[in-house]
Amino acid sequence: MMLSSKYLIEKTKISRATLNNYIKLGILSKPTVSNPGVDGKGPRQLGYFPDDTVQKIESISRLKQEGHSMSEIANRLRGDTAPAAALGRRREIDSPKVTLEDLDCPAYMINHNFELVWINPEARTRLLGGAELPANSESRSLMRLISVERADLTSLLRFHIALAKGRLTADSFSVACKGLDPATFAKMQAIYADVIEEPATAMLAVPITLPDETLRQSPHTAHASYFREGMLIVLQPESETGDAVIDLLSRRDDLIRSLLRRRLPVLTDLAVMVADLQSSVTICSELPPQEYFELINEIWSTMAPIFRRHHATCGKHVGDGLVYYFFPQPDSDYLANALACAQEARAAMQQLSKAWQIRKNWFNELYLNTGITEGQEWLGTYQSTTGVEFVVLGDTINQAARISDVARHGSIWASKSLIGKMTPKERERVSYGVRRRSPDGRELFVSSSFTFVEKLLEQDGVRLEKLKDIATLAITEIVSIKS
Predict the structure, then answer these.
(1) Are 138 and 131 in contact (CB under 8 A)?
(2) pTM for the structure as a whole
(3) Which residue stretches of 310-444 are H helix?
(4) Domain 267-481 is in which class?
(5) Is 2-95 a domain of CATH 3.40.1000.10?
(6) In angstroms, what CA-CA distances link 454 with 203, 290, 344, 402, 434?
(7) Which CATH architecture has domain 101-264?
(8) What's the pLDDT tens digit per position in 327-370?
């Protein structure tokens, strides 16, 4: 007698993804595929398994409940007949670890705006109906993808909103729901007001229900692990008890590196800040190599906490400069974050410069010349042998670098498009403008104004070939920002 895959799924209550995972691990034999012989109805082909497959799946479930990993279970059922006690002893010695690939239940990662940045096949099938993620970051909002229209996912939706309530203000939650029709938007707001917020702790485990393969609601545990880069959520069926998921979530450093390597490229709004050390070649020639690298490392260590406070993400840069990305945040304006960060970095650099003047008894001034602009670009990750780096593709980063070439003596220059996209409230806090020379040679500061890059070069009597590509870009100098 042979059992169909459809019968196995209904009988054992496992998902099709789990069944395929057992086959991939070699626990179950590959099925024999044939036509079920239904006249024009149902599937045209089904996989058929030996009649002892149900017993094997029940054995897998039992071993999972005893806390064994999938690697151990696979070794045992592929022919290792060692007793359970010996299996347990070997487990203590080998200490096999469950990985993201081992998970046969829905798992996904969201950023702090509750937008999906990674999702496994099981979650894509069960939560999104197999659909691919949209390219745009806003369209990946969980509040759009899993809305109140999915009555079968109500329990999961309420869990998400309870998480959001512990991390987003009511206004920020409304932004996360942007794009929903008015009736759905109102229902989401009502749930937000009704749920009890989940605390913003490192790890959570909350009971929920999800539809199984037969569309019946089955008990699950929603595990949530919070990281600086976002939150990983794993939806574990109650039947798959054990410490495997908890063990995975507890290995935070390994887990976040693994997640970042799998992070899906996304089209997102962002601001880019590039800051270069002025006269770095001259400074390098005047200092012994050891002291020059000490200076560069001190600049990085001084700036790092400033960038963290302003929600900046470090980007890839060749040389002794700094590249940081600022992405939309739930409770702050990412454009204002970029400008405020640049102002704070400039003040810190002034203090660092004074310290080195005293140390070296020299008159050199240390300046970070800063260029900032905004755009919409693809964000992804670059995997090197030593780690994972965030990379932005497109002209925005090159434009910011060119603007930083315009800056001198620690000044901060920003594009007109960035200033224009700020909210009126945030823009009022910024003092900006352009210094111009009057006919009699006096320098005048014209506030709230912009100029083409080529006009600045003409004014200085300088023509830089590498700035030709932004010659007609309108920019302005950021003088100060009110707190």
Answers:
(1) no
(2) 0.73
(3) 334-360, 395-406, 416-421, 424-428
(4) alpha beta
(5) no
(6) 53, 39, 28, 12, 13
(7) 2-Layer Sandwich (3.30)
(8) 998 888 999 999 999 999 999 999 999 999 999 998 889 999 99
